[in-house]
């Protein structure tokens, strides 16, 4: 037997049957366990007993002494809902267990509250789209980019909140599977979720001792429980259900993977930085499961990855070639370089001899995947680390340790009776596979391109196919259940024939796992969600997948009818052909060591070998070329879509940035322009207003004549002349009512209203002429003075005496009004002198000439003033036409009390009227109705008339 096994010509099938039903704690019904092909009468008898038990699962589960002896499992089993097996046999079915784990918030960069996930109970969560801000107002139109439902409630077997620790999580989700494994039952656990949601943390754990994940804890519990019950490992598992005599090549020592002593050279270089100081090694889960001490156990480990739709053995020794220059990889001075060659493994159907019954399938296995016997938890953990080292772990923007492949760790336990150590028929094989799925990729967020994009496409393909398998399984089961519920309506056999093909073969991942879904043990799915930095839409898809999965049932008791299988055909490996050329990739692995910063690896990935006889696949699943082509098409389109979206996002971002910059520049330029214009306008306004106020002063009505203000610098020489004229003219616009005898009508009339000579007060003209002389900045000789004096005389005429009396009038009627200064002595003298000249020494004809000339000049001046008034109004931006200048604050108060805007106080010389100034700066136009104006004017006049001796200066401009 041993000899045959060594040659590899014969393999055996271990028995799946419980031989001693009375032996406590006998396991519950075994799913697909293996049985030796070399049958013995005793084995057959036992198998027969087992067969009976297998067909009566309830008796085996609930009523058997074994079940009573294993309380943990009994509780776990009793919690599960049961349904009739759609296959029509007596096997029980359980839904796939789905657990939700919510990742806690990490660091400060993420928001403090879960934005869209609301745990409602231990088994339900509500997801609400945070962008759906129209919830409160249904009448408002909804524009949502997302196709996911805005709010949904999802149910799970259990919801684990962020505070859940690893120990509790392991106990509730995985321990029942470990119990099943040691009791001979198969199990599958996989984590599902988007990148960075905590899948790897759940499976492998964190850096802290207590944060060990479910994989190291599983190994701890297994070795805690089998302590003292380990067999010598004389048989080893092959394929899915086969056993064969073990040989030395499968021991860790023989393959130089005794990690405690010597590792492969690559691992020596790299792993020392990876594993030397891993604090989680120090932790051991203390849980011990009680086992039947009449049995002995051997534990086998394999570690595979599905990467880019290829399967690789992560524990296979790698052919390496260290830094000898053979590779084209640019060598780093700091780090070592390796050329690795690894070969993709094929998934093959097990030979029919492995099948448990004639009609049954023996399942598919990964051809060439090596299993290593491990005798302690620490040894197993080291082996896992070696596998992780080989696993492709690339840093992406989303997660520096993102898993780019699906990692499958399979633990196989061979259990045999102590009394029948040499009998392979006494062996049970059970297996537990823990799968760390790669994250569903967010290409937009991770800026995935090139190789990463291809990886993403393949990852998504695997997950998509997994979802499709679930969907088809669910609909098949529904149809069968309906048919069984109404047996008269349709023939169940017809329904079975019409069931849709489950597309397991469309991805390597589902192909490898299909036996679990097809009824080979319990399936547990862990849904990892990170609601802090992952989008609502992405997690919605994950949730939908989990909701779908929970509706799929897997048979938990699928023990087939045992039969003696024919010997396995010898391997035809020598006739293999390589399906494609090797693919070379360059990998850079960052290291944690001080000396070595990174290692460059060149990986040659050989395609899987296909046997000639495998080209016509003998799989029972029909191949539909159209479906395959459509899948390829979908993948192609998906990749192109990702690529296009990525490019669009980049272009959009760049365009936005450019436009923003341009707009910013423009805004700055506009701001500068406006500020400059505003300042110049304010200055101009101030100049003009000051000039006007100066005119008032110079008329002597508001105080002593002030010195001439400088002409605004922006005025040209041409403007200068005009402005000089304007100033003089504007002075003439001042309606001077310096005596109380002036009629109301005259006082209220605007000097602009008539624009005629009679509206121009004689005193005003006189002063205007004087001002003109002063503004010219020179005394142009006596003639010009005489000329101007004549003009004044002619203009004043009969009003002269009145004007003279007004000059000496009492102006103390207004409390804060400063009486105008007396005209300067020079002016007065000039006037008097001119009068003297005119009356005494000038002949009559000359007088007449002078009179006509004076009349002309007067008319010219009047004309100039009229013109300038227009110029003045139009020229001053923001000039307020509705302004009333009142002589003092009190008057303003009175006017303001009566109501009506536009009341201005004319300050004394040197006094600053801040209100007016501010008003000017704001250049706000006040609109005053005629009615308001009249009211104000009336009030002012009233006030003025109440003060007998007051002088009122008002200026009204009615626009
Ligand atoms: N329950 C948790 N408690 C504390 N930290 C956690 C938890 N879950 C995840 N993390 C941390 O979140 C980060 C991302 O987790 P992890 O690497 O497991 O994500 P992932 O889903 O495996 O990502 P990928 O699919 O890209 O491999 C890690 O730093 C991990 O330590």
From TrEMBL:
This protein's name: Kinesin-domain-containing protein
Species: Hygrophoropsis aurantiaca
